[in-house]
Each structure stands twice: as structure tokens, then as C-alpha cells.
Amino acid sequence: MDIVLKQVESEALKAQWQAAFEEQRIGRPDGYFDRCLAENQAGTRVTLLAFADGRAAGCAHLKYASDYPHFRDRHIPEINDLHVFPAFRRHGVANRLIDEFETIVNRHHNQIGIGVGLYKDYGAAQRIYCRRGYIPDGHGVMYRDEEVRPGQTVPVDDELVLYFVKELDYD
User: Is the pTM of this model over 0.85?
Assistant: First the structure.
């Protein structure tokens, strides 16, 4: 399977990305795609679309200023919102996206971060990140980027996340 990555820097690629999400029934709030395009054009985000044999296969973002305070305060870029569409899973798409982000980040930083959900749907992602050398950042479980304290009750949904970091070889 030939995997090609393209950065969302044009209206045409934004439209392809939006159409792919609609086809996959992945919802996003109004203005999301426009905001991401503007951030790509401004250089504060890198959104990569993955194409496998010419078909949209997934996407992910690299956020230079994470919403997660621990990463943001330490200038750790974050891989964010990584999606591989079901028909393309287990074909190297996620690893190809992560490889590219690690290469980009390694030019100027010695760490990269990523968050992962905690329920079963995220099991494959959890395993990929661990195999690639990502380790928990030591700050425990977060809900909407805030620490979950012992005894606190929070929903088990996409906002319940454990953040990981990976050391890079940047000199």
C-alpha cells in the first residue's frame, strides 16, 4: 500500500479532508476545518492527510502549542486527533503519520507528546504509542486537560486521556 501524506494548506485539501470526515461520520464543530486550515497557513499547526493508494485513509495534527498545560508550558509539540479510517487500519498509516511528525519535531525539539483515550476503542493506539517508545508523562489521568484527583468522578469518554512523551535525538 502506497501511503502519501499531504499538509492541509489549501481550500482544496481542506474540502477533501472535510468530505472524508463526513463520509466516515466523524463530526466536528462549525468552523473547525477553517480554523485548522488557518493555523496550518500560520505555521502553528501541521495537519497531515494520509492517502493510501490515492484514497483518503486518515489524518492527524501536530500542535506546536498544546491545549494540555504540561506540554504547552514546556514547549512540547503534541500529536493530536490521529484518525485512521477503518478500511486502512493495520496497514501502517498511523505509523507513517507519527514518523513524519517525529521528523518535523526533531528539527527543533527534543520531546514530542501525544494523548490517548483510556477505553477499549483506544487499545490499538495505546499499543502503537508504547511500541514506538512513548511513555506516560507522569501526571496521571486528565479530563479535559485537567488532573483527575483520587475520588473524583468523571465520564469515561474521549476527554479522559493519559498523556505520553517521547524523547527525540535532537542535538
Answer: yes
